[in-house]
Write a structure and sequence with these properties.
Blueprint lengths: L2 H18 L11 H8 L15 E10 L4 E12 L12 E12 L2 H6 L8 H12 L11 E15 L2 E12 L2 E14 L2 E12 L9 E2 L4 E14 L13
Antiparallel strand pairs: 1-2, 1-9, 2-3, 3-4, 4-5, 5-6, 6-7, 7-9, 8-9
Length: 244
């Protein structure tokens, strides 16, 4: 075998190894192992929201011949400081909603907002596509919604668990409006572990035109009812972050 043939054979072996288990040779410039490490979420700190457990649910009411829908969405990131009230200059936190994750009429969403029956997958996909598209949420231009929490005030206790009022600014579809909601908490080792609350908005207040079709005989209402089910990372009595 000549030196040139040897070099060609070596090159073929290297390329073959890259294609089979190493670096891909099309459309990707970093090894899969590096990409996976970079995509790994950093460890959460006390006070931060756990995006794996937290959810947002929305009830979309029908208008005329339309149908009620239930939406399930995920939290992108966030944190809440429940020791921050109006007397402090420090803000109480931020919740970032991943609008691209929103999915229509999941079983979990329909159960949460108390809608009966299941929806066929094809119908769910069609409704989700319309919801995320440019005529409604337009997630390509507005991929996130945020709730910038200015204060978190302890108001009362219900069934032994504290109730907080969260006040701040809610931003959706490029529009920002003030928002105040009451949230009931659950405790773990004397620390708030879970917050649940609900509020209503008008789509038109955020520059969104409620969906309608068939000359308006099929559509949804302007008002949306939204529930937040937020799980917060806490410390155990020894001061260590809880284990997942």
């Amino acid at each position: 075998m000549t030196r040139l043939q040897s070099r060609i054979l070596s090159l073929v072996i290297i390329i073959g190894g890259m294609s089979a288990g190493g670096w891909p040779i099309a459309g990707q410039t970093t090894p899969p192992s590096v990409t996976k490490a970079n995509d790994k979420q950093p460890a959460l700190k006390p006070g931060q929201i756990d995006p794996e457990k937290s959810r947002v649910y929305i009830h979309v009411s029908k208008k005329r011949l339309g149908h009620d829908h239930a939406i399930e969405g995920r939290i992108k990131s966030g944190s809440i400081n429940l020791k921050t009230d109006k007397s402090t200059a420090k803000e109480a936190g931020l919740i970032e909603f991943d609008l691209g994750s929103f999915s229509a009429d999941t079983d979990a969403a329909r159960k949460y907002v108390e809608l009966k029956g299941a929806i066929a997958e094809a119908t769910r996909e069609q409704v989700t596509e319309t919801m995320l598209g440019s005529d409604v949420l337009d997630v390509e231009q507005f991929p996130r919604a945020t709730f910038k929490i200015k204060s978190a005030e302890l108001r009362s206790a219900k069934n032994g668990d504290p109730v907080y009022t969260l006040q701040g600014d809610f931003t959706l579809h490029g529009k920002t409006r003030p928002l105040s909601l009451s949230t009931q908490s659950e405790l773990q080792d004397g620390k708030v572990r879970r917050l649940r609350g609900d509020f209503t908005i008008l789509q038109s207040d955020f520059g969104i035109t409620p969906y309608k079709a068939a000359l308006g005989t099929v559509g949804v209402a302007d008002e949306l009812k939204i529930w937040g089910d937020i799980w917060i990372v806490v410390e155990d009595p020894a001061g260590k972050k809880e284990r997942k």
